[in-house]
Description:
Number of domains: 2
Low-confidence stretches: none
Number of helices: 9
Amino acid sequence: MQNPKIVFFDIDDTIYRKYTDTLRPSVGEALAALKQRGILTAIATGRPPVAIPAKVKTLIQEVGIDMLVTINGQYIEFQGKTLQHYPMVADEAAAVCNFLAQQNIAYAFVNNAEIAVSEETEWAKDALSRIISSYQVDAHYYRQQPVYQLLAFYTQERDSEIDAAVAQMGFKTVRWHENAVDILRQEGSKARGIEHAIAKLGIDMKDVMAFGDSFNDVEMMQAVGFGVAMDNGEESVKALADYVCPSVDEDGVLRGLKDLGVI
């Protein structure tokens, strides 16, 4: 695909290295080149707006990124204004939280502007330290504020057990840390958020390109017109992609766009 109308980029390990706080200059060069061609640029991330890294926020402002699809597609902004959002039903959030509490699993609520944890366990503190510097402690946050996604803090050994239980409540999990998962409605995903948002702009999914690397990018890779996986990405994501570009550490986004003839 040489002429997409909009290109979406995941953040962590696609344009930005979370564990080293690295954003290579080539990312800004790539985004600026897309803008010069009149191609819209967008972020598609599991993070809420409040947890977007400072270096990426600066990039968004400097380059003028058009759209932010955040919280795995649950909260979307276009040119600085809310375009679409999918808050959880309070009773459903309560049911999942009650189950997690019964299992002695700490959890967190994700709002566009803040994160609140049920309790500060070591696993919760470690996982959240990777994405945000401060958060509230409030086990009943959902009673006062919109919640777009839950987080739960447990090891991979419990994945099958927890997956089955939350599935019966209409939810799914997506692991993003050795001790943490996202929990969202089964129909929720970056793909749904992208599809609904671009429809409001009169763009078809066949004209969308997306770059990603991890498990929460699977539906996006399947749905867009052209999916690009990072070479450092999960094998399951690379298997779904139309093209695999070099890793994030090797200027993958810039090199991929050039190799594909987009810029």
